[in-house]
Amino acid sequence: MRIISGIYKSRKIVAPKNLPVRPTTDMAKESLFNILNNQFYFDEISVLDLFAGTGNISYEFASRGTQNITCVDQDHGCIKFINQTAEAFEMPINTIKSNVFKFLEKSSLQTNIIFADPPYSFSEEQFAKIPELIFQNNMLLEDGILIIEHSKHTNLSDLNHYSHSKSYGGNMFSFFEVT
Description:
The protein is of the alpha/beta class.
């Protein structure tokens, strides 16, 4: 994976092969950040990265100037890799090793952007639980957005707070907003 833009532009990050991850493709990531670039000043926002995996999305935010980034993943290897990478690049990324659903049930954190990249194999009920907990606990700041990455075979348009989706190859990003 590579960082698309910002101070670490073109830097390649190689994750260990044994991590249980499916990193967002560079094409999909670039398209997503083109959308976000028109809505946010990256140096003025906070980000929560759920099911963070390799930290791919968080590195992109950090490279673009975001100073308040929190990554949540339950895999020890993923958290260790994110911590090592963040330290090597001096990125302001905090990590929390936790089951994402347990974290969401208890968290009082509020951010501008919440990005969730759960396993594509999640059931519709598991996908639905993500925005349900986030909006129930008021985790988005005013004008904030939740973005869930999923397969094009998953439809989240019937969920509360759904705004729209964008498709990039086999990947989809569904956007949710405070209404």
